[in-house]
Amino acid sequence: QVQLVESGGGLVQAGGSLKLSCAASGSSFSIIAMGWYRQAPGKQRELVATVTSGGSTNYADSVKGRFTISSENARKTVYLQMNSMKPEDTGAYYCNAKFVDWGTARASELWGQGTLVTVSS
Predict the structure, then answer these.
(1) CA distance 68 to 29
(2) Which residues make beta-bridge pairs with 1?
């Protein structure tokens, strides 16, 4: 069974930096893509950034130039380096993984439990 473990959330002042990590564990699966989504209080969950196993990245316009997503394919881990943070970056950040289960040969999707990021002004 695939599991996602997130870490790195916390409280930071505006202009500061945080780094989130998410590791996928389990057996007999291959990552298609991993990414981060966030949900602010009272708002819908939105995409922050994604990276495919081939290294292609995609960012929300609101974080371009400030956030960087990277991955270690061998460790099935994705990182989100967040710089020049703003109060509007506050929210719960969720790791997402799209993967292929070798046993079923089917693509599946999994969400992490979420980690809270708070940016104070």
Answers:
(1) 25
(2) none
d(CA 15, CA 32): 33
| Among candidate residues 37, 111, 31, the one with its CA nearest the CA of residue 72 | 31
3-class SS of residue 84: coil
Interatomic CA distance for residues 10 and 43, integer angstroms: 20
Residue in 47, 18, 17, 19 with CA at minimum distance from that of residue 33: 47
Find tokens 């960087």 and name the residue.
68
pLDDT, tens only, 2-25: 999 999 999 999 999 999 999 999
What is the total residue count of the chain? Answer: 121
